[in-house]
């Protein structure tokens, strides 16, 4: 696991929160054969149209002490207002994804923790929302990306 300093955390947080990861326009222009002004303009347009959500760093959780990934599959305590419960769950910093389901189970939550002990502590914070569920520990990840493939 890499050692990062508080200053590194501040930089990464600012990059993520303030959208400060700027694409390398010159490299994109060179690769596409387009002028840099065209690339810059199109990137601004795509951002304005919300096709590009953000320019955020993609961090390696394992190197930052959050390599223990689990998926929690369960039912919601309050089915009359599932959006309230899902939003409350999503606010926890260890939660990477909240998915409302149709079927036997109501919710799937992706959690990142340091280890099993921290996972259990995190689950205690979610138990008021999720009932009758359990965690599935991921032992090896073959593909985990936020990349969307353009067809």
Shape, please?
globular
Query: Helical content, roughly?
Result: 25-40%
The CATH topology of the domain at 66-137: Alpha-Beta Plaits
Total helical segments: 5
CATH class of the domain at 66-137: Alpha Beta
Q: What does this molecule look like?
A:
This protein is an alpha+beta fold and 151 residues long. The chain has a domain of 72 residues: 2-Layer Sandwich (Alpha-Beta Plaits). It is 35% helix and 20% strand. It contains five helices and four strands. The mean pLDDT is 82.
Concise summary:
The protein has 151 residues and is α+β, with helices and mostly antiparallel strands.
List the topology elements:
Elements (H helix, E strand, L loop, with lengths): L5 H12 L7 H8 L3 H13 L19 E9 L5 H9 L4 E6 L6 E7 L2 H11 L3 E8 L14
Sum up the structure in keywords.
4 strands, 151 residues, alpha+beta, 35% helix, 20% strand
């Amino acid at each position: 696991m890499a050692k990062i300093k508080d200053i590194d955390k501040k930089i990464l947080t600012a990059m993520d929160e303030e959208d400060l990861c700027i694409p390398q326009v010159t490299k994109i222009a060179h690769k596409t054969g387009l002028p840099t002004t065209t690339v810059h303009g199109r990137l601004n347009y795509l951002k304005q149209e919300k096709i590009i959500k953000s320019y955020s760093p993609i961090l390696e959780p394992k190197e930052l002490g959050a390599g223990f990934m689990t998926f929690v599959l369960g039912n919601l305590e309050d089915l009359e207002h599932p959006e309230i419960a899902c939003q409350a769950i999503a606010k926890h910093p260890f939660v990477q994804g909240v998915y409302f389901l149709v079927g036997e189970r109501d919710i799937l939550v992706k959690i990142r923790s340091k280890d099993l002990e921290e996972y259990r502590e995190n689950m205690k914070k979610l138990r008021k929302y999720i009932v009758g569920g359990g965690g599935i520990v991921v032992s090896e990840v073959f593909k985990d990306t936020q990349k969307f493939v353009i067809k």
